[in-house]
Amino acid sequence: MERAQTSSQDGILTSGTDGPAERPGEALELLVHGVGGTTPEEMLDDPRTVRIAGDDTAAVFRRAADTEEADPPADRSRSRPVPEAYVWCNLTSGNGSRALWLLLLPFMVVNLAHWMRPSVPDRQIRTVRLYGALVRLVGLTLTVLLVAAACEVALDLTAWQCAGTRACAEDHSWLGFLSPAESGGGWWSAPGRRLALASVVPLALTGLLWYLSRRTWNAYESQPPLDRGTEQPGGGSALAQPGFWYGRRLVARLRAAHTAAGLFTVAAGVGLAAAREDRAPGGSAVLDALGWLLSLALAAGAVTVIWVVCGRGGTDRRVDVTLDGRLVRWLPLGSLALLAVTLVYAGWERPGWESRGRLHDDAPFGSLALTHGLLVVVLAVVAHLLHRSQPDARAAMRGLGGPAVALLACALGGVMAGGVALRVADWLDGTGTSLDGPPVVLTWQASVIPPLLLILLALCLWLVRRTLRGARAERDAVERDYPDETRDPERTAAIARTRAMAALTDAAPLLIAVTTTVTLLLGTAALVGAFAAGEAPGPAARDAHPFVEGAAETAQALGSWLIGLGFILFVTWGRRAYKDASARRTIGILWDVGTFWPRAAHPFAPPCYAERAVPDLTWRIDTWTRATGGRLVISGHSQGSVLAAATAWQLPPGVRGRVALLTYGSPLERLYGRWFPAHFGPEALAALHQDVDCWRNLYRLTDPIGGPVRLPDGGGPDVDCVPLKDPLAHGRTVRHPLPAPVLGHSDYQADPTFAEERERLLARLRPEVPAPRPEPGA
């Protein structure tokens, strides 16, 4: 791959040795690829490409022939536009180690819930803020859950139970120096000191999350957006606000709060156990008083963290370059100091203190599960009120998509926490008799996984049946699309099946609704069973019918192993997705949707690539159009069309009027419009159509991702073309002597309609003044 040097002035190629100069009136097509990524050679259909702007992470490329022409033809603008490719795939992919980001999937999912709120009028601003605060609180509890799971493994199972039990310590020689029986009562054998030493594990986890968040914050959230001066953004969506893609202040605020919450969780896991011992008869009065003081300090810290999380943390109406005050910035250091005092307090000599049973009862994990359920229920009520104020028939789950996704995030977090704890307990206690194991509530949560999977399997079978019936119904439509060709029944059936399978995307709201409803009911039953029985599901059913007892034990064992197997497969698939391009195209759809949005609800979520991509595109378009006065078409495929729309919203009005938008295989309405109605709903897309000079959208019925835009009545001339034929020919024809493939979501440029629509868009534009809009239906 060749590279060209760029001038220091706005990244625009200049004449001379640095490359050819741009010419006034020249037409440019800026290509933006979709999920899965590609190479500039494939996008530009040329083996010789030149990087003209950007770096190894994201860059703009041209064909070498377009940069080597010293005197471009005068009629170039009337023949074809100069193509440029913006390659952003390295923002979301990399080496196999980046699959570790998938371990933070619950954080990414709850961040999605923040952006799924219904579209509302301006008078509902307080309810909107309440919705955001509730989602941020759910994210905070997920951080506490993850750190609590690490505390359960390191503090309870390892340092408290296994190291304090002769049989377990003998099976694991590396714990010998912590065991009173093995070391003869050495310095580290005291329970408080064991806990202090084991706290290194959750402390390291919290530090790692802080480090990753801060490093990606410097790389993504701190990218300065385009300075639009006094020009006002377009209306219709918050994505047009100047500070939308500049989350520097909010992410820093949330990072401080979540880091402090993790440190407070570690301090509570160590300090409350020591305080409980001091409050027992015969305990030290001085240590007891110190324990109460530490408990009050932990409570005050928790209140401060909740206050910081519930705060707004800046505004999108301007580019906020400031950071929060000293209280927020010093919160992690204060929590670290409190943790250090707690570790010293726990490590103080307490004669006669022995580790028996579990470190803590079911209260911590049970309280977290109950808090998750209550927050999601309240969030659902708020979302319903927002949706009712401005109903949107196309919104997923009637505006309840956000609460449903938040519940899925909680369920994922619970499954991951329980799976790790159960697997570590099985590994430490091979006989299953020497340890009490993890809290009972985690075992009950694992036991509800088999019935949940059975219900989902039944739903999937029903969807398969409906798809087969839809495929039979599509055959007549396929034959009508090829009236002048000799039709093959098998070919017709294959095309009809592809169309029916592509329609499965529209069943996602039903699948999510059933999953979340069943999860909420089974989770509630597991929580009630854990507190009512006080023991695992199998032993709790011993007085019941033998069949019930056997089913409970089977569900418990199977659920535990399914969690472990799922966790392994999850990491394996994630690593494969970052190394195998085909696997990435399958998994990367949801991943790229999740990481498109800024980290407004959880700072430890994977970074938002649009924080870098949208400023890149806006800077390139603004500098090119201002330097040349030329015509520009943003050509976006799949997720690239979403980036193109976000870029168009961020352009100054004077530039936006000289830009056309060509989208194909676009999920703008089919996925984003339904699941994110506040930002891509009908009003937002109609406003986008008014902001850009002209816009056309291409889609196929065989495409499982892309679809029509469906602007509301009165939204201006129609954006959507008629569905493209796929395949281009039913059988063998003079123009297609070999069978034409079913392209589905790929290779839209292979259809002649693509070039025709691009030429029409360019014809609408003028070098200086945009052409009049066509009348509706024209």
Task: Annotate the secondary structure layout.
Layout: E1 2-3, E2 27-32, H1 40-44, E3 49-54, E4 59-63, H2 64-68, H3 76-79, E5 82-87, H4 105-115, H5 125-162, H6 166-171, H7 180-183, H8 191-198, H9 200-221, H10 248-279, H11 285-310, H12 326-329, H13 331-346, H14 363-389, H15 401-428, H16 440-447, H17 449-481, H18 489-502, H19 508-533, H20 537-540, H21 546-579, H22 581-594, H23 610-628, E6 631-637, H24 639-650, H25 653-656, E7 659-664, H26 668-675, H27 677-680, H28 682-691, E8 694-698, H29 752-764
Parallel strand pairs: 1-3, 2-5, 2-6, 6-7, 7-8
Antiparallel strand pairs: 3-4, 4-5
| Name of the level-1 CATH class of the domain at 2-91 and 610-764 | Alpha Beta
Counting DSSP H or I runs of 4 or more residues, the number of helices is 29
CATH topology of the domain at 2-91 and 610-764: Rossmann fold
Strand pairing plus helix content: what structural class?
Answer: mainly alpha
Strand order of the largest sheet: 1-3-4-5-2-6-7-8
The description of the largest β-sheet is: 8 strands, mixed
Can you give the mean pLDDT?
A: 83
Biased composition (Polar residues): 1-17
Region (Disordered): 1-27
InterPro entries: AB_hydrolase_fold (IPR029058)
Keywords: Membrane, Transmembrane, Transmembrane helix
Notable features of this structure?
778 residues, eight-stranded mixed sheet, mainly alpha, 56% helix, globular, single chain, 6% strand, Rossmann fold, disordered N terminus
Kindly describe this structure:
- This protein is mainly alpha-helical and 778 residues long.
- Helices cover 56% and strands 6% of the residues.
- It has helices at 40-44, 64-68, 76-79, 105-115, 125-162, 166-171, 180-183, 191-198, 200-221, 248-279, 285-310, 326-329, 331-346, 363-389, 401-428, 440-447, 449-481, 489-502, 508-533, 537-540, 546-579, 581-594, 610-628, 639-650, 653-656, 668-675, 677-680, 682-691, 752-764, and strands at residues 2-3, 27-32, 49-54, 59-63, 82-87, 631-637, 659-664, 694-698.
- α10 (248-279) packs parallel to α13 (331-346) and α14 (363-389) runs antiparallel to α19.
- The longest helix has 38 residues, at 125-162.
- The two termini are 44 Å apart.
- Residues 1-22, 74-78 and 768-772 have low confidence and may be disordered.
- The chain crosses the membrane at residues 128-150, 195-212, 256-275, 290-310, 330-348, 368-387, 399-422, 442-464, 507-534, 554-574.
- Residues 1-17 have a biased composition (Polar residues).
